[in-house]
Amino acid sequence: MARIKPFKGLRPPKDLVEQVESRPYDVLDSEEARAEAGTNEKSLYHIIKPEIDFPVGTSEYDPRVYEKAAENFRKFQEKGWLVEDTEEMYYIYAQTMKGKTQYGLVVGAWVEDYMNGVIKKHELTRRDKEEDRMKHVRVNDANMEPVFFAYPDNAVIDALVARYTAGAPEYDFVAPVDGFRHQLWLVKDKEDIRVITETFAGIPYLYIADGHHRSAAAALVGAEKARQNPNHRGDEVYNYFMAVCFPASQLTILDYNRVVKDLNGLSSEEFLAALGKHFTVTKMGKEEYRAQKLHEFSLYLDGEWYKVEMKPGLVDESDPIGSLDVSVSSIYILDEILGIKDLRSDKRIDFVGGLRGLGELKRRVDSGEMRVALALYPVSMQQIMNIADSGNIMPPKATWFEPKLRSGLIVHKLS
Length: 415
Fold this sequence. Notes:
Elements: E1 4-5, E2 10-11, H1 17-20, H2 30-37, H3 45-48, H4 63-78, E3 83-84, E4 90-97, E5 100-110, H5 111-116, E6 119-120, H6 127-140, E7 142-143, E8 147-151, H7 155-165, E9 171-174, E10 181-187, H8 190-200, E11 206-210, H9 212-228, E12 240-247, E13 253-254, E14 256-260, H10 268-275, E15 279-285, E16 296-301, E17 304-310, H11 325-335, E18 349-353, H12 357-366, E19 372-375, H13 381-389, E20 400-401, E21 412-413
Parallel strand pairs: 6-11, 8-12
Antiparallel strand pairs: 1-5, 2-3, 4-5, 4-10, 5-12, 7-21, 8-11, 9-10, 13-20, 14-18, 14-19, 15-17, 16-17, 16-19
Helix pairs in contact: 4-6, 6-9
């Protein structure tokens, strides 16, 4: 069962939140962060992307960069750009994208739940990326950015959240980069805090939706601090890390699409003919065509869109991994026809998040940079939960969650 607790968040004053808040560290590169921060010394990028305070080209893994993060974090607190709440509480965080709102609870998630599998994963993590985030957590002694969890829908939590969100929020702004709305409410009432804690104690599992490396780093540093403390009791703040938990039904997973540089020596006609072995291929014309259901793909080639439907009986539908469209496309199109064996390392393939739209696929093919584009129907949250429950791992580049959590609304200190 899931163990969570409230905490004293470190937050910007209401009138500074739009100057402090930022995109997550891993959705933009150093130069994009440098441009977005501009002359704004209050931008969280100075803590989560502190290489922007060094000359262009400085590695984000330079030891001086981590030290700068800690220096800037101290500065933010000294200048009052981040202020610690005086009491432990939960927070309700709402995100609105294209008219749809999802409501998450910001909580302290128990480190041991990550270690024992109550917090379930669906992706592999890389040790080098874990170590980078661990260094960042260690040097700041804080979780600067939250991780993104899903949980099975719960009527008690839904009702409590609805009651709070009927009132005025603490923060309410539209992020300039994506145009999405972000709101935050404070849950200070002791009885409401008790209800949230006890309700989650009855929820068997939490699921990492986005932020596997941050989750691993936060949990590993928490466990490390416990081992290093000779007087460890188990109730210290480092036993928890910051997560935003959303009801699974509210989450939006977009398509995560593929573009490929060449047809592996085939002509367009030969490639389309090869597709016909396992798929029914229908030319849809020059207007953008989006896949309408599972086991259907849209393909862009030579200025034309095609509907590509999997033929019956190709996969075992009871196989949670093999029946995924990302697996079907990888095995029967990318590997069998185009010769792409490893999605992580092959330089002939690139990936485009669905927020960019089909127009981005068309642009990259029409420009001559890429030869063909393949758009997938989005994975469902239920599929992700089924795979996590079965102890399996999603294939690479399978999920794209939007909207992303904004960073800088709340920081979780570890001491």
